[in-house]
Design brief:
This protein is an all-beta fold and 398 residues long. It folds into three domains: 23-211, Sandwich (Immunoglobulin-like), CATH 2.60.40.10; 216-294, Immunoglobulin-like, CATH 2.60.40; 298-393, Immunoglobulins (Immunoglobulin-like), CATH 2.60.40. It is built from no helices and 31 strands. The strands form seven sheets. Strands 5-4-7-8-16-10-13 form a seven-stranded mixed sheet, with no helix packed on it. It is elongated and about 85 Å long.
Length: 398
């Protein structure tokens, strides 16, 4: 690699000063320094054309969630260096290279996955621009092996153009005779891999993909407090780095296995069953075995009355929905009996809950506010822990 660095370098600092890291790993062209809550990442390499000539003045940027987190520019040797701080959960970034306007080269974009072990970022090779073409290569992210037969789709909403193709044996795909546009979307997918999508592309771009394998799995057991396996408990895993979710039911022994997972990033594993408090563990990776124990949990009991304190009329149905304080989404329901009594079970200890009461067949829906009086605003709702007794009265609707 040529010596020197790019004209702009974004170094990893915290609070305007130097950050102290506990471990540093160097491999290939990437240096990864570990901290408790973040990673200091440095991408470095060269930018050349396919004849091996260095290309100076290329604007290099790294994007996460469509926001630039680091940038730099190649020097006269085509060398660049970009450093920035990244969240431990954020492993997939987009590396972009934009040549100077007075050069004949096409823009370059590639999805990059890095881990604590220091995955290597390859040097960039720029193709000559062909304004009516989008092309690139699809590879396996683990060993950069070309993937043949991958399905690639490209479209532009502004021009109503769309087409699809498959990669060749060398992983190359190409779309030609494209109308001029700046809103192209290219999608690469194939069995056994996570689908990837690139957006905001122009005709003439080179767009390569490194697909993550769906070869991972998480297994384990769900047991009760006595150690007995629990049949038909719902187990869900949620990626802490993407929107990926998957769920299964346990078998007769309480065993579960969730397959075909992306191998990068961390997962949260949650188990739940009616009548029990849910249990979860985070920071788990594909290949882990996770056993969760469900406790019968605590309960909130109480009564429901009209606004004047009198009993509910005969035949009145009141539904109670339970929400964790500060979170959206109902985590449990119950109904009041003929005497207006209710009991909500399976609540986790240490959690705060807010209750919402609804009279079936009417528009009356109120949260439990101060003094047990109903309120229409959640921000005025009181929060309760397992073991609490709540004597609720519907608030006046006047």
């Amino acid at each position: 690699m040529s010596e020197g660095t790019g004209g702009e370098t974004a170094d990893a600092t915290e609070g305007g000063g130097r950050t102290i890291f506990s471990e540093e790993t160097v491999e290939g062209n990437i240096t990864v320094s570990m901290a408790e809550d973040a990673v200091s990442v440095r991408f470095s390499g060269t930018v050349k054309d396919f004849s091996g000539n260095p290309v100076p003045g290329v604007r290099i940027s790294v994007l996460s969630d469509e926001e630039t987190v680091g940038s730099g520019e190649t020097d006269r040797h085509g060398t660049y260096s970009i450093g920035y701080r990244a969240c431990l959960m954020d492993y997939v970034h987009i590396l972009r290279a934009v040549p100077p306007e007075d050069t004949p080269y096409a823009d370059y974009a590639e999805e990059i996955s890095f881990r604590e072990d220091g995955s290597v970022v390859r040097d960039i090779r720029l193709a000559h621009s062909q304004p009516s073409t989008i092309w690139g290569q699809v590879c396996d992210s683990r060993d950069s092996r070309p993937i043949s037969g991958a399905h690639v789709v490209a479209y532009s909403r502004s021009t109503f153009w769309a087409n699809e193709t498959e990669t060749r044996d060398d992983g190359i795909y190409q779309f030609t005779s494209l109308p001029e546009a700046w809103d192209y979307v290219v999608i690469a997918e194939t069995d056994g891999y996570v689908t990837q999508r690139k957006t905001g592309l122009s005709d003439g771009s080179t767009v390569s993909f490194r697909l993550e394998s769906l070869s991972g799995s998480i297994t384990g057991y769900v047991r009760d407090a006595g150690g007995t396996g629990m049949k038909s408990a719902l187990v869900e895993i949620r990626s802490e780095t993407s929107y990926f979710r998957k769920s299964v039911l346990t078998d007769e022994d309480g065993y579960y296995e969730i397959r075909n997972l992306p191998t990068y990033g961390y997962y949260e594993v949650t188990a739940e069953k009616p009548g029990y408090a849910p249990a979860s563990e985070g920071q788990r990776r594909a290949g882990d075995s996770v056993t969760l124990t469900l406790d019968a949990g605590g309960k909130i009991t109480g009564t429901v009355r009209l606004s004047d304190g009198t009993a509910l009329p005969a035949g009145t149905t009141v539904i109670i929905k339970v929400f964790r304080k500060g979170f959206q989404g109902c985590v449990g329901t119950a109904s009041a009996d003929d005497r207006g009594n209710f009991s909500i079970t399976g609540l986790a200890s240490g959690m705060k809950y807010e209750l919402k009461f609804s009279r079936f067949g009417t528009d009356t829906r109120q949260w439990v506010g101060r003094g047990g009086i109903g309120t229409g605003k959640r921000e005025d709702a009181e929060a309760y822990s397992a073991g609490a007794t709540v004597n609720f009265r519907f608030g006046s609707t006047k």
